[in-house]
Amino acid sequence: LAKTTQPISMDSYEGQEVNITCSHNNIATNDYITWYQQFPSQGPRFIIQGYKTKVTNEVASLFIPADRKSSTLSLPRVSLSDTAVYYCLVGDRPYSSASKIIFGSGTRLSIRP
Amino acid sequence: DAGVIQSPRHEVTEMGQEVTLRCKPISGHNSLFWYRQTMMRGLELLIYFNNNVPIDDSGMPEDRFSAKMPNASFSTLKIQPSEPRDSAVYFCASSAAGRSYEQYFGPGTRLTVT
User: Fold this and answer.
1) Between B45, B98, B101, which is nearest A98 by CB?
2) Does A99 touch chain B (CB under 8 A)?
3) What pLDDT score does B56 carry?
């Protein structure tokens, strides 16, 4: 079972690019990397998913090196509204069992003016 | 699309009482998930349904917890009897076929057991 490790918290300023790295040394060949965002008093929201190299959507980019033992979520030009907890998940697609769905502690991102 | 609907949004009950949480998934989604979130334990998956059938309930903490999905548009999570340590925010999420990695969460039910 691939375990993920993320920084507990990060701080940044409006307009900056923020990169949150997730380590997953035991990732399996058929595992994908998924990131969620959770605002206070709300449920998590799917942001992005990738398998290798780079994936980009309107919200973020996901960079995955060749060995896939880590991944980096990149948020361009953050604003105060990006203050949230960000979770990295690793699992097959679709999830073959509930044991694959582990949100962990996440990274608490605080954006300052 | 109304998104995932949960009710009630807040529930306060006394220890020993039965609590029923309700969820209406997004129309057309065939997977449904129940989660519990606390400060101490984070976000934990309790049970996972696929096409109304429970696939994995290994996260259900004990026999006091039960979940049902009688049809594609409704699910319940029941706690009987409730205990103070069950106080948490309970989320329901749903996903489309083959896309269980992309879950849509409801607003949650904040349960307080006194």
Assistant:
1) B45
2) yes
3) 87
